[in-house]
Amino acid sequence: MGVYPVIFTATDSPSGDVLTLSFDFIVLPPGGGDANRLAVNLWIKKLSAKVNADVTSAPNDSWQAQYIYNSDRRTGQIFNPLTQSVLLALGNSATTILSPAFTQSSSGVFSYKTAKGVQPGLQVKGTPTSQNLTIKFTSTELGITAFPAEMVSNNITLGGKGYKLEAFLDSKGKFLPTSSYRSASFVVSGASAKDTGSTKDNATLSMYLADPSLLADFDFAVCDSSNKNCNQPVVKLKLYDGVNVLLDKDITSLVAATRIEDSHAVVSYKMKKVVKTDPAMENILSSFSFDSKKGLLKISLKNLVLASPLDASQAHVGVELTIGSMSYFTSVTLFESKLGSQAYNSKISKYASPFL
């Protein structure tokens, strides 16, 4: 689910003329939704750029970035750097790395580096187990004459999975999470689940969420005298196995939002669990926290009961979070690291019985 940048290329024979068609292909989550509100499953940890103001000189711009991405890691679905290509772009700086240019270690880490003296210079490193991607570009052309720069397009395609974010770069050419996002970003950065063989199963999700529309969507019209404790938006969590709903948990009455305004009049908010005991007998919310300034979101559940069992070895679980009128969807692949325990960032090895 999300917005996928797609490029089609056709080459005429014998003239060799090339026709290129590019567009954004939109895939909605299982429950449907508004295409304009789709979150991209790519999180910018760091991004900075430098531009050369002399347009008469050779390309001498540069940029580097670190990302967290979400994709399907099941056997046969995971991005294969030895057979699939990679598209990397920021502004006008774009390149496609064709297979089999990457090297891959026994741990699955893939990397690429241009030869010394080759321009533009490029270094790429990807770690599928933690779904981290690092990029460094030199001697390139960003198409930006000066900073600050608004609505800079950042595109990445890993094999068949595409990501497209719009970003703001400040006067120093830096991206500042989360205020620099100009489109929504939602990823799972860590997940674990445990099957105890009783009613004490549990799961924890660590996520990052940023959306410039989300703050405005909150109704802060009714606040207390301190102007902090305000109306509570609807908050729901759903888990999917394909289109099948595994869990549908409404936690609106269990959490509360606090409005924060700093000395520069920048508004953010924090959400946390405020009810000591969840009255539910199963799928109990044990912890919840969200800091919109950092984008960090954590949810823990215990006495977990899913509507249907998942695959014993590897399960690709959809995660849908609703806050107010906004819904965000991503998906994460869990592997059984040991009997009864599943983890997001584990290596693929041997598996045993189903979890949860």
Order of helices and strands: EEEEEEEEEEEEEEHEEEEEEEEE
The percent range for strand residues is: over 45%
Give the helix/strand class: mainly beta
Uncertain segments: 345-356
Number of helices: 1
State the helical fraction: under 10%
**How many E-type strands?**
23
CA(first)-CA(last) distance: 25 Å
Biggest β-sheet: strands ordered side by side in the sheet: 16-15-21-22-23-13-14-20-19-18-17
Outline the fold blueprint.
Blueprint: E1 2-11, E2 18-27, E3 42-50, E4 61-69, E5 86-90, E6 93-97, E7 103-104, E8 110-113, E9 121-127, E10 132-140, E11 149-158, E12 161-169, E13 185-194, E14 202-210, H1 214-217, E15 235-241, E16 244-250, E17 255-261, E18 267-273, E19 284-291, E20 296-302, E21 314-323, E22 326-338, E23 341-343
Antiparallel strand pairs: 1-2, 3-4, 4-10, 5-6, 5-11, 7-8, 8-9, 9-10, 11-12, 13-14, 13-23, 14-20, 15-16, 15-21, 17-18, 18-19, 19-20, 21-22, 22-23
